[in-house]
Amino acid sequence: MPRWRRNGGTRVRGRSDGKRFDAAGTGLAAAGPRLDAAGRRLDSAGRRLGAGDLGAALGERATLVQFSTAFCAPCRATRRILAEVAGMVPGVAHVEIDAEHRLELVRALDVLKTPTVLVLDAGGRVVRRAVGLPRKADVIAALGEAV
Question: Where is this region: Disordered (predicted)?
């Protein structure tokens, strides 16, 4: 069932299955890249994040970044899983970001749902991205790409 949501100050009809309608509600919107005011692509793939962006230091080998909200039940379970994996693997840090308080970063990285997990390599480059409650084995496998 379609639902209405605000998008950039205009009312846009959206769908709960992740697909988007155009403003008239007649068909799917073009899925082109999102651009900032200067025309640069806003995409998390290949983007580098630093300690200033995250508000915490990066891990020596990799960093698990979790975007969550206060009333998100899967976010609490994700926090436990990521903290456990970060404790198991040396040089890996876990950083949790409250999506409601860091809206500029959420918009820049196109975070639409919580929990969203980004896996960063040692240089802060986004190498993997996942939405929803991850399995521990999947997190460890994703760290294999970053390390």
Answer: 1-23
Q: What is the pLDDT of residues 13-42, one digit of tens each?
A: 444 444 443 444 433 333 344 444 444 444
pTM of this structure: 0.70
**Residues forming CATH 3.40.30.10 domain(s) in the chain:** 51-146
Residue 114 token pair: 């919580």
Taking the chain, what is the end-to-end CA distance rounded to the nearest angstrom?
A: 42
The CATH superfamily holding the domain 51-146 is: Glutaredoxin (3.40.30.10)
How far apart CA 40 and CA 11 sit, in angstroms, is: 25
| Rounded (5°) CA angle 84-129-39 | 140
CB 1 within 8 A of CB 16: yes
For residues 119 and 59, the answer to whether their CB atoms sit within 8 Å is: no
